[in-house]
Amino acid sequence: MVTDDQVLALRKEFKKLKVIKIVALKTGMNRKTASKYLKQSALPSETIKPREWLTREDQLQNIWPRAEEFLSVTPDIEAKALFDHLLEAYPGIASEGQLRTFQRRIKQWRIKNGTDQEVYFDQLTIPGKMAQLDWLDMNKFKIEISGQTFKHKLCHFTLNHSNTESATICRSESILAIKKGLRDFLYRVVGKTPQILQVDNSSAATHRPCKDKKKRIFNHEYLEVLKYYGIHAQKTNIAKPNENGVVESQNGHLKNKIKQALTIRGGKAFKNLKEYESFINIVIDKANHRRKEKLTEEFSSLVNIPIRPLPEYQEEYVNIRNRSTAYIKKVTYSVPSRLIGTKLKARIYEDKIDLFSGADLVFSMPRMLGDRGMVIDYRHIIHSLIRKPGAFSNYKYREELYPTDHFKKAWDLLNQAMTERQATIEYLRILKLSADGPEEDVNLALELILSDDSANLNVATIKELIEKEERPVIDSIELIPNLNIYDQLFLNQGEDDYEGHHQ
What we know:
alpha/beta; Nucleotidyltransferase, domain 5; five-stranded mixed sheet; four-stranded antiparallel sheet; elongated
């Protein structure tokens, strides 16, 4: 079949050569066909008449009237869902192989009879007016930190006009993540602040009021953060992610840049979090380098930022209870028992909690992800449990006293072989041994004992395995003294005596 491009090329070549046979060969046509198209002014597509007859029987003619009835009532129904329903409701009227034809028929019906759809309007970006915030889930990348899979997100800010962006690592969508990300965006990347920050209806920035479940309002702490920087808060409508279109679009681009950078780097494993943060900043800075000109355009419209940024943490005072625990952000944490009875200032970061007595840092611990649960470290309470073994059986957080699966299996085995009290005392001694020395050594010893049916499971056996050292093997080599060395020694001594006598 001859295409419009072939005919256009034919006419162009004929103007140069004026020989039909040659230009027909050059454009891939028969001579008669080339002659025909040179004589007529219309292109092939302009000569095609619409076909108004069927080449074969319409196999959907029995099902289509019923489909139109559904479409007139529920025009948004999916074609496949409607087709499956009709096949089930009217068996034998059509076959599954006609699905594609049915979908094309639905598409044509909607073009002619469909309802008006929502229209999206391109917006002009005003320099310096708005930035947008969104969250980027990074778990699919399977980043490794110190050999462990690192589950995290990126707190992603973007200036609407220049697309200048920043991305900070965070563990969840939280106000602390926003404070950290905003600090990086304003002070490290941009140097000034936009007039408006728009965010979706994330729970880090908004919540549902009790009276109106369909509405979301800003959190007080989020508003206080923006107020400090002189930024007006704005949010998208519920279920309207397109309203945050600039940062949504940048999400995809940033993911691709990170993916390519990881490929070039040759791996997703990082020694520590600092190395990974440096990697993300390099990717961001390279992308922003190409946006410097547009950032300069809007820099004069941006607002000056305070000299000092807000700290990345929250502070609150906590009481250390006689259970050697503190209740912080709806999570129970164990702490060293020396702190019982004190009131300490908790400095809460996104990933850790520091406890202060006055200006002195007295304890630091990782922060649990989420706002429910408990974090109990057996090292904080084992010395008391040793003295009060009866408290073990009904301890509220007993499951936290099995550091690994091997400890849990050891307890089960002891409980089967002894009375409950004897098993408790022996297990607590094992736990005390682990608290006093490297847990890894005790865990490895337990693994060896549990894999050997003939081995005795007790503290003495574990100590023996831990303290056992391989003695260096010395090869027995025959030692033959070299007497010439002694002759040389006496000879040198005699020369020294001679020289001393004549001096």
